[in-house]
Amino acid sequence: MTEFTVWAPSPDRVQVDVDGELHEMTRSSDDWWHAEVACRADARYGFVLDDDPKVLPDPRSPRQPDGVHERSQLWTPAPGAWTDSGWAGRSICGGVIYELHIGTFTPAGTFDAAIDKLDHLVALGVDFVEVMPVNAFGGTHGWGYDGVLWYAVHEPYGGPDGLVRFVDACHARGLGVLIDAVFNHLGPSGNYLPRFGPYLSAGHNPWGASINLSDAGSDEVRAYIIDCALRWMRDFHVDGLRLDAVHALMDNTAVHLLEELAAETDALAGQLGRPLSLIAESDLNDPRLITPRDRGGYGLTAQWDDDIHHAIHTAVSGERQGYYADFGSLETLAQTLKHGYFHAGTYSSFRHRRHGRPLDTATIPATRLLAYTLTHDQVGNRAVGDRPSQRLTFGQLAVKAALALGSPYTAMLFMGEEWGSSSPFQFFSSHPEPELARATAEGRKAEFAEHGWDADEIPDPQDPATFERSKLKWAEATAAEHGRLLRTYRQLIALRRDEPDLADPWLDHLSIEFDERQRWIVLQRGALAIACNLGTDAVSIPVTGELVTAWDDPDIGAATTTLPGHSFAIVRTVQPRAAG
């Protein structure tokens, strides 16, 4: 016998349809419904609410073989599917994370195809793979942030069995796996949760109705989220989660959902005997996210740091539009790298108000923040999804890599960055509903038309060509300058692993010098100086010593090093400079 359960306080009657046969369910005092049914191990099932004959998928569906509008399916891993019993896990802090999208990482766009590229990541030297959302969402392809069945794995990628094979293969190669989880909103296609109970609140965030985290009935909604998060780590053996846009979680309770989730995650890590990590994407610049719970924080492991991205990108590229307006100078770059946040209780011209709060660098190590020069957001949310590699020189790309990978922060790359991929990463979707498809396409064009873009230049997210254009071109990875950049990334990542000075996580030990006019900056990490020339002309920098690695050939003299334009050099200095 198999027990079927569902939390459904809204309907007065619930039946479970198992392989086409209806069975009455019994309601308990906590609004959970129960029924025991003799059925196959892979039975298809769903729930019928009141008098509506539509069979709805299970809110906690383990598998959706026919899409988010159809019946669920019972699922457990095949015997012997897991071979990673020897995987001890690892902390993300100080490591290198590689963000990828399963659908565009390879031509086939599946977990199994991604497995074939894992040896490339091992050779690159990364420690973790961070996979953009793989929960079930409407259509065949999309970014995954419009998921509606958070427990199920997107079938076109390979479903839950494919995810098992992928995680197991990563662990066999020494790679940890992080899953991007979206708990702040639900997608527009296939969201049947409000039929069951109060999953949504009256509030709204930029993507629709907010999740009910503190209104009536929210205890079960919070449990729904926490159980889902733990399931990825327990049942699919993943090593942690990236939590999407946590600033959009509207929680007025005394114990914030994030604090509760962090405590449950730490407890699970203790049970499993391996580290588990939670990484927040947050727009708040709020240190409480990564402050330990015993010091009044939420106790998350780490946080994406967009200020570091903005500071590096604008200093190298010269872009100043939108939220880049406060960034661009080397002084801003130095301040951000030295203090973690640029906006720390300071005025943000983009927001027209003060923003952020200072980070206590004496107690919170830099490895609690992620440094990157590229993410899916910082490419895909541009009007035409263009990468920096489509506008910058290879030397500029190498300088950005040296600044991020040479910093004390936990580092992250976006797929294809390591060779300067020429493929855009555009916003794409495949909503099967004509009205939703049209609204998505028109909304995208209207959004950027307000910022001066020609609507005809904005890719149609529903056009399959938009999806195809966004796939990596692996043939270029080792060609000419692409291959040279790839070798540079490998060298920089290897240095993070092999040089003790680059493992120092304390910002108080970091010294930075720069010259705004000549466009050079030096990060001093113990005896290692990471010297970067962001300008087009050669400059002489007051650094000398033994060359460790470089882009282009520096001229190291007795007192200075001359760097060609758009290049960097890492030098082992004769005497370490004092921190400052």
UniProtKB/TrEMBL annotation:
<keyword id="KW-0326">Glycosidase</keyword>
<dbReference type="Pfam" id="PF00128">
    <property type="entry name" value="Alpha-amylase"/>
</dbReference>
<protein>
    <recommendedName>
        <fullName>Malto-oligosyltrehalose trehalohydrolase</fullName>
        <ecNumber>3.2.1.141</ecNumber>
    </recommendedName>
</protein>
<comment type="pathway">
    <text>Glycan biosynthesis; trehalose biosynthesis.</text>
</comment>
<dbReference type="InterPro" id="IPR022567">
    <property type="entry name" value="DUF3459"/>
</dbReference>
<dbReference type="InterPro" id="IPR012768">
    <property type="entry name" value="Trehalose_TreZ"/>
</dbReference>
<keyword id="KW-0378">Hydrolase</keyword>
<dbReference type="Pfam" id="PF11941">
    <property type="entry name" value="DUF3459"/>
</dbReference>
<dbReference type="InterPro" id="IPR006047">
    <property type="entry name" value="GH13_cat_dom"/>
</dbReference>
<feature type="domain" description="Glycosyl hydrolase family 13 catalytic">
    <location>
        <begin position="99"/>
        <end position="444"/>
    </location>
</feature>
<feature type="region of interest" description="Disordered">
    <location>
        <begin position="55"/>
        <end position="75"/>
    </location>
</feature>
<feature type="compositionally biased region" description="Basic and acidic residues">
    <location>
        <begin position="55"/>
        <end position="72"/>
    </location>
</feature>
<comment type="similarity">
    <text>Belongs to the glycosyl hydrolase 13 family.</text>
</comment>
